[in-house]
Structures are given as structure tokens and as C-alpha cells.
UniProtKB/TrEMBL annotation:
Molecular-function GO term, any one: D-lactate dehydrogenase (NAD+) activity
UniProt record similarity statement: Belongs to the D-isomer specific 2-hydroxyacid dehydrogenase family.
Organism superkingdom: Bacteria
Pfam family, one: 2-Hacid_dh
Organism: Microcystis aeruginosa PCC 9807
Coiled-coil segments on the chain, per record: none
Record-linked PROSITE patterns: D_2_HYDROXYACID_DH_1, D_2_HYDROXYACID_DH_2
Annotated protein name in UniProt: 2-hydroxyacid dehydrogenase
Length: 335
């Protein structure tokens, strides 16, 4: 099939081309660095399939144009699909597939890295040493052993994070609308309601998809229920967190450390080099000024194993569509 691939970086091309060759799929992959949005959708004219990433804007307007141009398949090379109007796609007869599993270890291990950097203040220590400042003042952390970790969302990534933190000797609390027996099988792990988790966890990590119901799950009210000086980590979806409320929580000391690999306005920032520009987002600029905040550019998934799995799954889904096979990773329209 002829496939228009949007929001591409050099590594996307390397891994997708390799997957295409290994699968002997012979798809014609045409790469565009541009994000997919209404003003760039004309690039996909005549392509029966397109491939997009997390910050491509596949809204109703984009879909209407895609349908008129002959697109019949949208392949997401990611797990989340909140950037796609799934109901509209179904109405237009456009199939949507995603990558349901890549490497849950990549994100879980990244969370542990963020926790340790913030706790032991490695980012600050690194910068000090570069200025020949070898003082330890202000760099004290705490033992993870014996601390309580709250995991909100206990799917594949949440389970693996729980197993790793159990290895550190942490107590585990979980919150999930759909409890997973594998979580309770980890040491002393137990499910509790959300207020109990918020009030008892020293570290809270978010691992849930974005839905209308959990938009701004972390807000002024839930932050007020948290243990003072809590460490909060979000590698899931940016809009799970109300940024203004989190900034207020940092200023008050309620949030002791914050690690963000996602951000609610990331679509205008992440995956691009803005070093020569003046960023107009005051919230991200303020967050970067805090010494107890660590921000990364949605790189939690970024390992060789994960990118390879994403490419292989994407090529396989395109091939299944071309051959009329069932789409096992199809995104079903809402009821």
C-alpha cells in the first residue's frame, strides 16, 4: 500500500523501513516531517493509508478531508488515540489501528529513573559539578526502601513498575477501575480508593489512558488530599494533570517533586527543536524554573525494543488491512 507517514524523525524511517523489509510487505512509505492537521492534510491526497503519531491532529475536519482524498486506514504508531475523532472516522468508513503493546518495560523503567533523579537530585548535582561546586548542601534525598508508592492505573506498565518498586522494598497501593489480580500478587500490594492512595503515598505515578472522566484527575482538590511533599510522576497523558493546580501545589510545598514526561500543551512543543525561539507557554517556562521539577519530552517509550515493536506492529496492521484480514489492533468506535 501507499502510506503517508507524518511527524517523522530519522529513527522512524530507519525502523519502519527495516520492518517493511523484514516483513516483505513492500509498502510504499512516503515520509513527511510535518504534523498532520487540517492545513497539511493535502499531503496525504491519494494515499489509501496514513500513519500518524501522538500529537497529530486527526480531528473531524482532518478526517473529512482524508475521506474525500481516498484515505481508508489510519495507523497510529502509538497506544493512545485521544487525538483521533474515532466516532467521525467510523462514520466516514475509515478504519483506525494502534499499537496496543510495545515495551511496557521502557516506560516503567523510565519512571524509576525520574523518581531517582528527583529524589537524589542528580540533575542539580550534575550541573553543580560542571561549575566546580562539590557541595552536598541541598542534595539530600530519602531511602526508597520502606516508602509507599501509589500507582494509578495498573495495566502492563503499572504492573511492571510495581514489581520494580517492590524490589526496592517499597509498599504498594493501587487504584484502578478494573483491578488486576497480578498487582495484588506483588508483595504487600493492595487496591484502595483514590483518596486513601493520595493520602498515604510518598510517590504517585500515573499510568492510565485519557478519558473524559479522568481529564484533570490531578487537580486542586486531589492535590489537597495528597501527603505533603509527595513526589508526583506523569508519563501517561498530559491532560490527566491540571498544570495550574500543580504549580500551586509546588509553590505551597504540597508537591515536593514533579516529574513530567507528558504535558497538556505538548503538541505545540514536544518532538521539535525550539532552542532558537521564544516559547510563549508561560506554564512550561515556570515549571522549568523550579529546582524540584524534571521535564522530559515524551521519551519514556524511546528504547530500541519499543520503537522496533511499534514499527513491526504498524507494518503488520497495514498489511492486514491491505489483505482484508481482521484488524486485531483496531480502535472500536464508542458506543
Amino acid at each position: 500500500m501507499k502510506v503517508a507517514v507524518f511527524s517523522t524523525e530519522p529513527y522512524d524511517r530507519i525502523f519502519l523501513d527495516q520492518a517493511n523489509i523484514e516483513a516483505k510487505a513492500n509498502h510504499e512509505l512516503v515520509y513527511f516531517e510535518s504534523r498532520l492537521e487540517p492545513k497539511t492534510v493535502s499531503l496525504a491526497d491519494g494515499f489509501p493509508a496514513i500513519c500518524v503519531f501522538v500529537n497529530d491532529n486527526v480531528n473531524s475536519e482532518t478526517l473529512e478531508i482524508l475521506a474525500k482524498q481516498g484515505t481508508r486506514l489510519i495507523a497510529l504508531r502509538c497506544t493512545g488515540f485521544n487525538n483521533v475523532d474515532i466516532a467521525k472516522a467510523a462514520e466516514l468508513g475509515i478504519k483506525v489501528v494502534r499499537v496496543t503493546v510495545y515495551s511496557p518495560y521502557s516506560v516503567a523503567e523510565f519512571v524509576v529513573a525520574m523518581i531517582q533523579v528527583l529524589n537524589r537530585k542528580l540533575h542539580r548535582a550534575y550541573n553543580r559539578i560542571r561549575d566546580d561546586n562539590f557541595s552536598l548542601n541541598g542534595l539530600m534525598g530519602f531511602d526508597l526502601h520502606g516508602r509507599t508508592v501509589g500507582i494509578i492505573g495498573t495495566g502492563k506498565i503499572g504492573i511492571i513498575l510495581g514489581e520494580i518498586m517492590h524490589g526496592f522494598g517499597c509498599h504498594l497501593l493501587g487504584y484502578d477501575l478494573y483491578p488486576n489480580p497480578k498487582f495484588e500478587a506483588i508483595g504487600d500490594a493492595s487496591y484502595v480508593d483514590l483518596p486513601e492512595l493520595l493520602g498515604n503515598a510518598d510517590i504517585i505515578s500515573l499510568h492510565c489512558p485519557l478519558t473524559p472522566e479522568n481529564h484533570y484527575l490531578i487537580n486542586a482538590d486531589t492535590i489537597a488530599q495528597m501527603k505533603p511533599s509527595v513526589t508526583l510522576i506523569n508519563t501517561s497523558r498530559g491532560k490527566l494533570i491540571d498544570t495550574k493546580a500543580v504549580i500551586d501545589g509546588i509553590k505551597s510545598g504540597q508537591i515536593g517533586s514533579l516529574g513530567l514526561d507528558v504535558y497538556e500543551q505538548e503538541d505545540s512543543l514536544f518532538f521539535r527543536d525550539l532552542s532558537g525561539t521564544i516559547i510563549q507557554d508561560d506554564y512550561i517556562q515556570l515549571l522549568q524554573s523550579f529546582p524540584n521539577v524534571l521535564i522530559t519530552s515524551h521519551q519514556g517509550f524511546f528504547t530500541e525494543e519499543a520503537i522496533s515493536a511499534i514499527a513491526n506492529t504498524t507494518i503488520a496492521s497495514i498489511t492486514d488491512f491491505e489483505q482484508g484480514n481482521p484488524l486485531k489492533d483496531a480502535v472500536k468506535p464508542p458506543k
